[in-house]
Sequence to fold (376 residues):
Amino acid sequence: MTDRIRKFLRRRRDEGPCLVVDLEVVRENYLAFAKALPDTRVFYAVKANPAPEVLKLIADMGSCFDTASIGEIELVLAAGATADRISFGNTIKKEKDIARAYEIGVRLFAADSEAEVEKIARAAPGSKVFCRILCDGSGAEWPLSRKFGCVPEMAPRVLELAHRLGLVAHGISFHVGSQQNDPKAWDRALATAGAIFRDMSERGINLSMVNLGGGFPAKYLKEVPKVQVYGRAIFKALRKHFGNRIPETIIEPGRGLVGDAGMIEAEVVLISKKSDDDNVRWVYLDIGKFGGLAETMEEAIRYPIRTPKDGDETAPCIIAGPTCDSADVLYEKTPYPLPVSLEIGDKVLIEACGAYTTTYSSVAFNGFPPLKSYVI
Ligand SMILES: *Cc1c(COP(=O)(O)O)cnc(C)c1O
Fold:
């Protein structure tokens, strides 16, 4: 944890759990991406953390933005970026939102079906379209399943239709799964992308861009490879599958850019047992799945938790949130070791919470306010 966050929390007077994001860490992470992938443009995945200060910082540093809605597009514009630095990367868009984005000046759109291409052709004529292909997501702790992307065999048809309808068949995109621990995951996807590029060129259409997606990890409990390792693996895969005709590339980091820049301070509300001979304690915090820690779903993301009693003897605990929904349990299948000396009222620090927390927190479930956020 950064000293800046520690200092901020010491001075904090208000109540309740809060996220604190350190912009200096975001800045360092952005520079690390720029250095690890020097020929690749960064399109920050806004959904990871749309705090205006974060958007403004990286907009000033030259970042582009991957957005999923008109709301996100407006946030990016308010942060000072122009529409030509925005990609409307959601493959599921209402036609009226495509039209609105076009009116604003956005000219880069994602699709993974012919029906979506038809909408884009009607509402955003002449724009660039890239086709998202399915990726198996193995090696990722938060795999993105089959919701986005089409099978690779379908991509040429989607892109050919785009071309026929007067759009620019721009390229291919994929996402190797979020919190992807294997830098080689890009190799499989780039092999497929390379094959689609060749197929398209035989049809007389030259694609020019590969969108390498996100997936770059934040450090939770386990060590993860550094972004340079990802950069090298990706460059090697590009060489292997595109030879010396490497296309324009973009990346869409979310978690990798802001995950480790933020930390949540929470409080222990109750420590109890369900029976006298229970050997696992229940530790209830004032934040849970509905307060922003939604990525603990199926215990996928395991956050590091610091307590004021660290160093003392530990015992396994079930950690749960404060709401009256029985799904509001963070870690139970794999209990979490916490100090035996931990007490009600202790403050705990949940690390690497900069991504996918504030916007997941509910509006007022059980009357709990949404997660507070400070950017320093
Ligand atoms: C969410 C998302 C990202 C960011 O993914 P991370 O794993 O957080 O880097 C990138 N691209 C698209 C299209 C996304 O939906």
Summary: The chain has a mean pLDDT of 96. The chain has two domains: 50-253, 260-375.
